[in-house]
User: Fold this.
Amino acid sequence: MTKTCILIGAPIDSGQRREGCLMGPAAYRVAGLAGSLESLGQRVEDRGDVSPAALRPVVCPNPAVHHLAETVAWTEALAAAGRAAMRDGLPIFLGGDHSLSLGSVAGVAAHAAGAGRPLFVLWLDAHSDYHTPLTTQSGNLHGTPVAYIAGQTGFDAFPPFPAPVPAERICLFGIRSVDPAEHAGLLATDMVICDMRVLDERGIVAPLREFLDRVRAENGFLHVSLDVDFLDPGIAPAVGTTVPGGTTFREAHLVMEHLHESGLVTSLDLVELNPFLDERGKTAKLMVELVGSLMGRKVFDRPTRSFG
Assistant:
């Protein structure tokens, strides 16, 4: 099915301390994302890079939190851009660190609520990102989006999240690095947790299919948030939060192909790409290939090429 893929650049570095993610949107464009989508018969509309909203005074009682005003400004701007894009097609948010999802998912959630349909979230990540501004010890707000999406407290500086997503509609897929405070919080929820132990024991497909079946049964929107560190750092080095033991090239493409076959994905984040840490564009190209699989490219359609 032909879609209108709306590219939204989110050059955000404020959610963590390692500079470079702000170059992510440009790297995806240079790696040929638009051309790859068009070659699959999709329409592409590149709306350029979002600019943050005006900064306003905000405070947080946790002194570790940094760049709070900037992150709030990005959240407000991306929520507006995301809601507008949902009316016109399938938004693809080009990051930027994972704090962009504070805004991207807020915009998607507002649209879903207006349409009277439930929103589901598939979080493809090494980390659970279930801290709040009050529990984070690093102060890095890229570790907080899932808590914000789920309606947790502690986000007083941020706009109220529109229609928080019930925990059972959020699937953490591929996680393998969870802080103690996050672990305790997750145990008190009904969130669908498919960590690498689950995927090793059950395989990639069965738990993914179960979650997608629920999205289909409830006629839901599905937002997919793809973090570079979902992938093993051996194949995707361009990320500042590498965690060994991630998904392989084949496993990642299998996830994307199943998402395509489901026909359920309505919005997508591409986050945490740091081109400064890449090897001749290797990670950016792989992420573009994964989006291609999500949009319909099959294994036997993939040309042979070199990473060199």
Notes: The mean pLDDT is 96.
